[in-house]
Structures are given as C-alpha cells and as structure tokens.
Amino acid sequence: MPEFEIQHITRYIYESPVRDSANQIILFPIKDAYQEVIKQELTITGNPHVDTHIDYYGNEVGSFTYSEPHMALIINSKIWVATKHRELPVNDIFPDQQWEDLKRLQFVVPYIDFLKQEYFVGLDELRAIVNHEKLNEYAPYQVVLRFCEYVYQNFEYIKGVTTVDTTLDEIWKLKAGVCQDFAHILMEMLRMVHIPARYVSGYICTSKSTGLRGIGATHAWAEAYIPDYGWLGIDPTNNCIANETHVRLAVGRNFSDCSPVKGVYKGSSNHKLEVAVSVDDENVLSNSDIQINEAHITNIISETPKNSYQRYMEIMQQQQQQ
Hints:
Blueprint (H helix, E strand, L loop, with lengths): L2 E23 L9 E10 L6 E4 L5 E7 L3 E14 L11 H9 L19 H11 L6 H15 L1 E2 L10 H7 L1 E2 L1 H14 L4 E8 L13 E9 L3 E6 L4 E2 L4 E7 L8 E6 L4 E10 L17 E4 L6 H11 L4
Parallel strand pairs: 6-7
Antiparallel strand pairs: 1-4, 1-5, 1-13, 1-14, 2-5, 3-4, 8-9, 8-12, 9-10, 10-11, 14-15
C-alpha cells in the first residue's frame, strides 16, 4: 500500500494591506476504500476558523474569512495519504448488455449531471470521430481506453496556451492545452456515447523519472462509469489508468466544481500569487519539512488595477490543473 506525504502551498502577497479575505478550499483528500487519509495539517495565516461541509458531489469543502488587515495570506496543506491498487475492469460481460445498462442511467441521479454535454461549434466533428472510434463490438471499458488514447495522441501538451475560462471551441481549435483541457475533451467524448464521466482534481505521486506530465503540481483527469465495476480513473494527459499513484482531492462536472482554492478580498488588486506542490513518497510521517522546488512555483503579478471579476479569474487561472 503506497504512502505519500504531499504539501500544497498557496501564497498571496499584496502591495498594500487588504482585509476581509473570504476563501473556499477543496484541499481535503477523498476518503474511501482505495484512499486513506492518515493525517492532515492545515495552517492558514491568522489561524481563521475553517467551516467544512460535504458538497453535492461528496467533496469536503472548507470556507474561512480572514478579516484583519494583512499583507500576505498563506494556505499550507500537508497530507499523508495511503492508497490501494484497484483491480481493473474485466471484459467477461457481453458488451451489448453493458451498453444497455448505461442507457438506463440517463435519467438516474447522480449520473444525470455526468452525462450532460456542453455545446460547441466543433461538436459534429468530434461526434464523427467518436462514432469512428467506438466500435460496436467493444465493451465500454475498451472504448474508454480508445478515447483516452485518441486525446493523448491528437492534443499537444503545452502550458500557458489555455486558461480556466478557455472554451471547448478554443481547445478544439488549438488541439493543445494542459491536463484540465485533456480531461474536458475526454469527458465530452465519453458522454456522447452515454458513459457517465466526471472531472477529478488531485496529484500524481510518482518519480519524475517516469516522465509523466503533471508531477510537482496539481493535476486533473477523468473518471468513467463502467457497469458492474464503478468509477474508473483515466488520465488522458498521460494515456494511463489513474490508480494508486493518483491521489484524489475532489470530483465534479468540470474544473469549476473542483478548484482547490478560490476567493475574494477587499483592497488593492495588485498582488502576487504563488502555488507550490511537493510530494515525498520515501519518508512518510517522518519528515514534516518539505522543501519547495522553486521550479514548481508559478507567479502572477498584477501590474494594473483590476475589478473583482478579473481578480477572481486570476485566482481561478492560477489554480488551473497543470
């Protein structure tokens, strides 16, 4: 059973004192049969009280307000997580029966939300590709793997070409983006063939030598519902199954349901935002001080005044899955 120590730091630095910083955080890992949270330490500047609740999708969500004037706000989450390998689906059920089972989910809660498609101009073009890739004799599990490989092979992984508000039309035209874009395209393909698909936010916990994209940052992938199996994690950014090396923070319809940190404040819009993620899988529970690799820190410096909506979008963009 692999164990990981993960530190996720979000730091806001303001040019002048600000106040009434109200924030929502989704930094509490999912707890289930395949993921155990051994311990979590959450420290926030000013030690505000954090109220938590479980949202509609089963995620633990925290909210807090830091009212006092401050020049910086740091949210430091350390988690120790143990994961368990999940056996993969088998194809010993007749495909026709599985597809019939999926059709019956179209009007069943909670699958309805994970079957809704987003309209975009390239929809017909994508549907033609989906129809070509989905061979009738294939079981849903095989189709999921084919769609995942298609996204991996036909979209280029380039940081900075998209933001959280980039539309599917733009992603489709660019044929490029980061992991959240890969996940959104894959989910659209799966939903076209009545396979419920949901967005997942979390971390990849493996050595850099594996060459996987998304190490050292928050990551995103998709989960597809397979009859008689359940939710299967699938990572189109790396063309792999998301299993014991993928630590899940939240699930939802899309990125907006799973953003790790977002909030607003009163004061100057000029600020700097830094986010860093570090993973240690060798000395779990023995080393409380994780060194932050500066190569993993992204800065946003506001040079001109911005309204509250623009500040909100900057915060959302910074939390974009890499």
